[in-house]
């Protein structure tokens, strides 16, 4: 039986990067080095696989984990919910859905940035064959639907029922949350009207009593999360499914349609791989195949802090593939990735760059035209 692959964060300190080539500290030099990396022989059609992380979406107004304004730096008390906690704890689900309800509007209204569109253009140039993304914002599929993308950690655009496996759009779910929680909906309207969720400056959001985190999460200190209600799976409510013990599940709701703890089925979960949850086997296999079918890998906007992503770069290293990394801040295990790299190479065998993705990638596209 294949070993389960879980989404587990690495929380240790990450050393600052060693820029490769050493003179690629300016935009022109970084462009030249990354261009050499992408067009090095063997230049087969679409020979690069991109592995992207939260840093790529920062320019779209979303939070990342370890960047300059990352959650782990500005909100050191932040702890993401774990799968078992969501599965077993009704109060934890209330807290999760309340925070997600507040954060969804920002995520829903955000759009791919120049970095995502540059990836599309690199694909059109025949330089990129596929993308494996850790991000759950769906920006890659919006920016380049023609370029094959594997969403390693799932996506927030829909929910999945833990009992029947059915899906529900997040837009419909958000409407249900608003109806079940009119006071929260009124508060959200006030927050939106104040502009607190429109600013991309974390300091301004914090000044207005908000802490924004990755994956559409908004922290409201001292908020009455226990009052929040969430709906049951509509499919299970209509036709209760057979559950693990072989019996027919029970789905009970209050007068307004909110899920009750007397239920044994009908819990909806975001269609993301939560921390501590196993990545679906078909996704794991597809990600590995994307690595194996490429000639090189380019990491964009990721510190590789989750093992599920780090192991893909390690897989590329084991196959002697050139490795490129574009990320602000340190990356887990990057010293090992470059330990055999020749000092006199100028980017064709490997690059390690530290620049904003929405600046460097579009400039690279213009350079390569």
Structure description:
This protein has helices spanning 27-39, 71-74, 83-88, 90-109, 114-124, 139-143, 170-180, 182-194, 202-207, 234-238, 281-292, 307-318, 334-337, 357-368, and strands at 48-52, 128-133, 149-151, 154-161, 167-169, 211-213, 217-219, 268-272, 296-300, 323-326, 350-353. It has 369 residues and is of the alpha/beta class. The strands form three sheets. Strands 3-2-1-9-10-11 form a six-stranded parallel beta sheet, sandwiched between helices. Residues 69-75 have low confidence and may be disordered.
Side by side, the strands of the main sheet go 3-2-1-9-10-11
Helical fraction equals: 25-40%
Radius of gyration: 22 Å
Low-confidence stretches: 69-75
Which structural class do you get from the secondary structure elements? alpha/beta
**Helix and strand sequence:** HEHHHHEHEEEHHHEEHEHEHEHEH
Count of DSSP E strands? 11
Measured by DSSP, the beta-strand proportion falls in 5-15%
Shape: elongated
Alpha-carbon distance between the two ends? 47 Å
Q: What is the average of the pLDDT values?
A: 88
The DSSP helix count reads 14
Largest sheet: 6 strands, parallel
